[in-house]
Design a protein that fits this description.
The protein is of the alpha+beta class. The protein is about 20% helix and about 40% strand. The protein has a 17-stranded mixed beta sheet that branches.
Length: about 270
Amino acid sequence: MKFHGLGNDFVVIDRRSGGPDMTAALARALGDRHRGVGFDQLAVIDCDGDADVGLVFYNADGSTAGACGNATRCIARYIMDETGTPTLTLRTERGILQARDSGGGLTAVNMGAPLLDWADIPLAHAMDTLHLPIEGAPTATGMGNPHCTFFVDDVGAVDLAGFGAAHEHHPLFPQRTNVQVAQIIGANHIRMRVWERGVGVTLASGSSSCATAVAAARRGLTGRAVRIDLDGGPIDIEWRDDGVWMTGATAHVFTGTLTAQFMEGLI
């Protein structure tokens, strides 16, 4: 299936009734926008003994991703529509996440508590995660994957492709990092653009939105409930005592079948 959340697009493979094992080669082939389907991330749905479903995420380069907020919301909406239940649980590398129907076609997911200690994000060595020793003094946050948020005066003035690529592999981030440039445009209102590790520039990113909201609150730039305007549209983030809740729209674009010709040599 193909889904998107604010233009952040996903291939989703439902393996609850069986299907091929996912490999890095298959993920890369599916991620090719000219010879495959194309996606920012791929998600595999499996059965889980302790949650309603289990999820594993892949980047377009075939690497795995510990978290993918918009894909989690898309799949939560799909499962809720399938079962008719307004709440459910989804197991990811972060643990078991809660999701709920927020009404009006919106879906909310609790992405869990942010990771703020250098070792948990992780960073290469002990340091203040609020102001990293990198030009621009960005903030580091873990949301099941590492994030590096730069607060700037004008996000439109940043060459995001070059800036993101340069910082994704910064030596302070041993597992690479997602990179955000964020601009405070009003009270509890942020404009953000994102570079995702293993992918590149994307129209939106749920985990990046959560990380940016946490970083802005920690730095005293906003409160703990914000609206973030991404290239693909708006999303609402609230950092609560029980975790970071993300609420926004989702879309199920199509359901299809991979051909034997495409799959040959990939499984």
